[in-house]
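Chain A, query sequence.
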Amino acid sequence: MPAVWVYILVLIVAAFLIRASFLVFATRFSMPPALDRFLRYVPAAVLAALVAPGLFKHSGKLDYSLSNPQIYAGMVAILVAWKTRNVLVTLIAGMLALWLIQWLMFRF
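Chain A, predicted structure.
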């Protein structure tokens, strides 16, 4: 077995053990209340960091103008998410809104 595969396997095992340790030892330790409150906002911050570049990037560059169709589709998705609290419905509504807006902008 070439040495590169040994390195890859060692790194896979190390990454797995590091991640599994949080699940195994999480019940033995309790977090301070301030840290627990802080960590509640992490999923929303990560989601915003993943979504924002897709909304504000148009044709490969940042575009904050009103001619950017992703901004309107994002507004529709935000409204649908707020009203339905359903991820699948939000994704479908956002994509349909984006396609419709792009089609309308291309047509007219």
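The mean pLDDT is 90. The chain has two domains: 1-30, 43-107.
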